[in-house]
Amino acid sequence: MLEPSRQAVFIDRDGTFGGTNRVVLPGEFELFPQVQDSIHSLRAEGMLICSFTNQSGIARGEATKDEFESELLAFGFDMIYLCAHEHGAGCPCRKPSAGMLLKAAEENNLDFREVLCHRG
After folding, report:
1. Phi, psi at residue 19, to the nearest 5°?
2. pLDDT digits 0-9 by tens, 93-105
3. Catalytic residues
């Protein structure tokens, strides 16, 4: 018998749940008001809360993947899906490519055949 698929929410970092219209490095990033409450509400509903972000500053040596991951975990995310490649590098994980989503689906038994997509 197959295990039922989990429900998950994927949230981009910069400009979505905090920051500004430019990339803000770890340690300087601030959450928007009510984000912590929203994360707690999603968790109470049983959602897997995933950060889904491109961070090419890692490839440029501006910050480390560990710094981004530690910050996002401290904000309450369960899983971090992060592309550290430069824009134009042609990697399959950089949004808008589906690489991070496919990895998340495999790692967390997610079924994308039933997806609710919301753009705020």
Report:
1. 85, -155
2. 999 999 999 999 9
3. 12, 14
